[in-house]
Structure formats: structure tokens, C-alpha cells
């Protein structure tokens, strides 16, 4: 790929100029560098990637230049990459970080094949993964250990080209890359990078869920299923809510104690409060809609915590939060956005110690062409479990 981070021109041009507030109608830096390489460099090597040139336009498999290597980065040969609804939001044009043309993909695992000059912790051949939201390592947020809300964040698949490709460039490698566990596959590791880490941090760090407490999960997609497995592993009692019986049955197989079909139950919050005798300690909106958000808040016990993980876009961006109960019951409304790389060891230890069945969560393994097609259909919510691309 050509100048993988759109904020900087390729080192081969010997220019580093920061670009701010780039309009979507202006060709991206990647595109300009691609044109330059095609004209001036006939020795450029190429890779396969899933590319879209317009929002909501077909994603096609193209031959594009291999990524350039910046001094603080690594290039990873992608062995597996998850297909996440956040990628769908980027393709739809809901995320201002995405500049055209673009390659999606932000949940990945693979092998390091090139290392930047200032990188100290990684070498060729290392098996690595990373959280989707990467910190720079030097801003005030990173200095306090909160890389997931970095002021200069780097996100493959959003601020730069992503992992729906044979290779991907990752900046700030020393701060964000995580060594894979030998006993875990590339597919299992890749699906941790967005949905699982966000659910883990939401439950453990933000929600502070304890064994024996009640957890409600609204929406049984990738984030919701991850939350169910984590809650079960911690020793909490889990209620899963969805619209489809197949997904609820799957949620139960992953550890949900109670399942509720929102099409059959008229008042989800009342049903949850009746089951729990007063409400749940932690409730997660894992979908991102006005209905699931409000139901989550109203499902809480006094002084309970609502964790917003599902992205709120379009008509759902500003839900009418029921502030009366928030005030009178001293409820907490908390966001959760990814997780720091340095918090991975505790999460991986939990996965291995409790034998969390990550492989069971994988619904389909696809090649790049089928994966690109599946991404464009994610708003239909057809699939149970998560999809992974592992054939490039």
C-alpha cells in the first residue's frame, strides 16, 4: 500500500507533511502515492487487497502496492482478520477518519515481515496481534496508560489502510503490538482485536463486574457474545437479549443463564428486573440503537452501570436517555472504546485459565473475496457468531 498512514507522505518521497481536515472529496495521500508509484516506479511489488473507492460502492479485490515502512512501524503479513460491523460503518461513510480510496479491516493477527529503524521490541518472524485503537506513546493519555483514547490515535482500517489485505503497516509498534500465545490460532487471536477487547475492558475495567452479580447484554452479535463469555468466565449471572432465537440459543451455549427474545417480550427492562429482583449491576448495549441503549439503562439496579459499546450512528446518534432514573437511582453511564495493548496479558490469562471457547464463536472462515461481500451485508445481521478472513 502506498504511504499506509494518510497523515504522512511515503518516506521514499523524503517529505513528511501533516495533513489535517482532509475533505472526502480530495484524493487521499495513499491514492496520490499510488499514482506516483505507478508512473515513476516500475519495480513496485504488489499485494491483494479489498478496496473501495466510494462509500457504499462495491468493494473489489485489487492489486495494490505493498505498504511503505515508517521508522516506528512494522509490516505484518496478515494471517487472519475479523469482519466487524465497525468496518461496515466505515464503508457506509459514518466515520470521518476513513478517506478514499480505502482498505478496511482492524481485527488482525499475523507475522512481522519488516521492522522500522526505531522499533526495539519486535523482529521478523514474531507472531503478533494488536488492539484496534493504537496509542502514540507520548501524548498525555498514553503517558497515563490510557492508549485507547490517545490524542494521536492510529487505527488500521480507519486512519490508515487496514487488514483486508495480504500485508498491513502498523505504526507505534512498540507501544501497541502484542505477542500471540503459542496455544492460540491466528483466527482465535484476530477476533480479540476489537469486539472482545472492548467487551473485556467494558466489563472488567469500566463496569467492575464481580462474581455473582447480574450482567445484561443487549444484542448478541460479536461484542455481545464476547461479553457473555467474559461475564460467564468471571462468575457473573448473564442475561442475553436479542431478536432471533438462533442467536439466543448460541448465547446460551456460550454461558448465558437467561435469554430474552425482545420480539416476544413487550417490556425488556421490567422482565429483567423481575428475573433479578431489582435489576442488574452492569448492563451493556452491544448493538448501538436507541431501543437497546434505553432498555439497558432501565434494566439497572440502583447505582448500576450502563456500558455503551455499540456504535451510535445516524438516527441513533443521540438517544433520549431516561435521566430521571439516572438521577434518582444514581446510575452510571460509561463508554468503552477498545483496550490498551499493555492490558492484553491479563485478558489472555483469563481466556486460557477459564478455557473461553473463542473457536466456538467463529461462525465462518472466508477468503478475501467472500469476506468483502460479507462486509457489505452486515446490516442484515444474517450471521450467528463472527466471520474471519483467513485465505488471501
Short recap of the structure:
The chain is α/β, with parallel strands linked by helices. 30% of the residues lie in helices and 22% in strands. The protein is built from 14 helices and 15 strands.
Describe the protein.
This protein is of the alpha/beta class. The protein is built from 14 helices and 15 strands. It has two domains: 215 residues, Quinone Oxidoreductase, Chain A, domain 1 (Alpha-Beta Complex); 141 residues, Rossmann fold (3-Layer(aba) Sandwich), CATH 3.40.50.720. Strands 3, 4, 5, 6, 7, 14 and 15 form a seven-stranded mixed sheet that branches. A six-stranded parallel sheet has the order 10-9-8-11-12-13, with helices on both faces. Strands 1-2 form a two-stranded antiparallel sheet. Helix 6 packs across helix 7. The chain is globular. It starts with 28 loop residues before the first helix and ends with a strand.
